[in-house]
Amino acid sequence: xxxxxxxxxxxxxxxxxxxxxxxxxxxxxxxxxxxxxxxxxxxxxxxxxxxxxxxxxxxxxxxxxxxxxxxxxxxxxxxxxxxxxxxxxxxxxxxxxxxxxxxxxxxxxxxxxxxxxxxxxxxxxxxxxxxxxxxxxxxxxxxxxxxxxxxxxxxxxxxxxxxxxxxxxxxxxxxxxxxxxxxxxxxxxxxxxxxxxxxxx
Length: 201
What we know:
Layout: H1 2-29, H2 34-41, H3 45-52, H4 60-69, H5 74-78, E1 97-98, E2 106-110, E3 119-125, E4 140-147, E5 149-154, E6 157-162, E7 166-170, E8 175-178, E9 185-191
Antiparallel strand pairs: 1-2, 2-3, 3-9, 4-7, 4-9, 5-6, 5-8
């Protein structure tokens, strides 16, 4: 009986950690501080911190205000621990979010989790697709061509990149890219800044 109680207690503690990480991931994904979330829910900053660190169980009376403040269903907070769609550190292949783009023939999927200081993306460029015009923004970026080829223009210079080639530059330099090949190009692209949901490209 004692062993069973210990096992139940351990499983409950693990569940608290999973729920706490899920809440923290959702909060960071929505760019909310603990103070802002506390203000929206009426829950103290200290209590929220305890919940996020798995040191306190999520009580029934706080589930609904938390879910409402994070714009999710209550089940998203307390669902099966096997649900890793809101994991703080990992992004599963089936849980990638798309990033809207304004240019034809380009697709972008967010690879980095909410807590990451870097923004990792899988960028696909269809044949004849590319950025409508050159653009610039804050930060730095790095890319690695996984498949296909692209023409990358940086600060007026043009670079023909094929599978296995990589690049890095300051994002403040005007840049653009186009696929002049006959097959889709795929690039692992990393930015140091957090772009908005809709990128102006």
